[in-house]
Structures are given as C-alpha cells and as structure tokens.
Amino acid sequence: MRGGPLPALSRARQALLLVLVVLLVGPPAVLACGPAGLSIAPHRTRTALVLSGGGAKAAYEVGVVQALRDKAVRLDVVAGTSAGALVAALVAAGDDAALDDLWRTTTTRDVYRGPGSNPLSTLLYYLEPTFLTFWRLDRQGAIFDTAPLRRLIEERIDFEKIRAAPRELLVVVNDLRSLGRRVFDNRTVGPDALLASVSIPIAFPPVYRDGEVLVDGGLTEPAPILETLERFGHRLDRAFAVFIHDPRPPAGPERFTLRDVIDRTIEMMIASGVARDTELARLRHPGVEIQVIRPSAPLGIRPLEFRPEEAQRAIEQGRRDALACLERLGY
Asked: What is the pTM of this model?
C-alpha cells in the first residue's frame, strides 16, 4: 500500500474531500518545505525530484539540483514538464557539467527566433501588410521559431546516457489532436519530446510526431507530481516538488504587450495547478512525503528572456533555498 492510491476512495470522492477541507479550513499551505515526517535516515530515503516549467526561470531548478548533489541526496526518479523537462533530462543523464553550463550560457537567440531577431527580419515585419502577417502566423502555427532550441537539445543532451541511466526519467507533454497526455521515459524520450515539452501554444509551434500534435505538458499539469506518484509512488519515500511561478503582478504600464500576455499566461498555467495537484497527490499517496521548494524572493526573470547573468543569480538563489530546505529535513 505504501505510496499507492487509497482504494476506499474513488477519485471523485477524493476531490470532493479536498474541496471540503479547503472550504472548512481555508487553502492548504502547500508551498513550503519541512518539517520532516519520515523516520528513515535522509540518505537512505528513496526520492523523486519533480520540476515545473517556467522558461528561463528554470535556472532556479539548476541551483536546486546543485544543492541536492552537494548533500548527496539519493534521486531515484526525476520528472519535469516544460523547461523543467530539459533540466530533468540532464539530471537523468547524470551530466552535471552540461546542466550547470546550459543556463549560464544560453541566450534568447539560442532558444527561438522571431520578429526582431535581426535588422532585416525587423524591417520586413514592420513593412508587411497586416493581413499578410496574420496569414503567415496562421500558416506557421506560432509566433516564434524554435529551430535554435532543437539544435541546442540535439547538441547538449546525450540521449544514450539517458537510456542507460538507472535513474528513472518522466517527461509529460500534451497532444492537441486527442486532447490527451503523452508520457515519455528513459527509453522513449528524444529531441521531439523535449522540444514539445516547452512548446507553449501560440508562442511556439507544436511538434508533429506519429500523427500527434504535441505541446507543453504544463497546460494540464504544471509539475507532474500526480503522474510521478501514480507510476512510482510505491517505490518512493519522499518527493521534492520545485515550483517557480510568481503570482505577484508585474510593475509597469497598465496595458500589457504581447510579450507580457505570454509571460503572465505561463505564470497562470503554473499557479492554477500547483496547490491542487500537490494536495491531491498527498491525499492519494499518503505514504510519500511531499516537500515543496520555491523561490524565497521574486526571481525577476521573464520566462521568455534568456540572459546568462540573470540565470546565474537564479541558480544561486535556487541553491540557497534548497540548502535551507535540506537542512530543515536533516540532510
């Protein structure tokens, strides 16, 4: 029974129970780490790391991974959606150098191209009649082109290492054609899966694969804590869930630009499911202790703007926050 679903309660009754708890005692305080509830020695604890999306803010998760590495935390399973899937893939591969280097060196041009990528494209964009702009965007299926990101994934991530790794990997994406979820593991993950994991609809184009139209898994599960525990809960004692959303409204003009709308949509995708999924996971899998790590202060990073200097600050903050959490848990 350890880590498995509660047989006496159907999923509908579990959800109803969660709603009643929220109505009676208020929203659960899920976004915190500690205190420890396990009697097992920390370094013998079977552990999962679950990573949320957030675009450039995923640099924070790199810092969390560094802290786990420093404290020799045993990681049996690593899972991620969106940008968290890229971090998860490198952790599964055990490629510490590539992970540490990726966000420190990656710029926006390494991730996507769009209007303003160079002077010529900017000129053509502004000279193009409006009806042609809409026609072109409709035909290409997105605002930005992620060909640079595909190259980065193919060059930086060693999929053979992932296939041979003892650490389980789980990457979640969504299929727009079937409106279902698609899950990839060590044996099935590849460049298409990781590119799809960060393909925010409208902003980035879907990935077409075997009749599927694959997009960001964060649309339905900001961090795959439920999926992870459904598959591996019986083998786990603890799960660290890393959430990097920032619900606070940004300072600036009253009207949003298109970039503002995309940025805040990403925040909303993450924030709307965090408390729900974490509490449902705790209810369905009482044998697994779930600890949440989140930024102790705003990261000050826009999800679609990749700047090495900002990434370095986020990495350092992620490491500090994770070390503080681990110390509370006795590591």
From this structure: 0.82
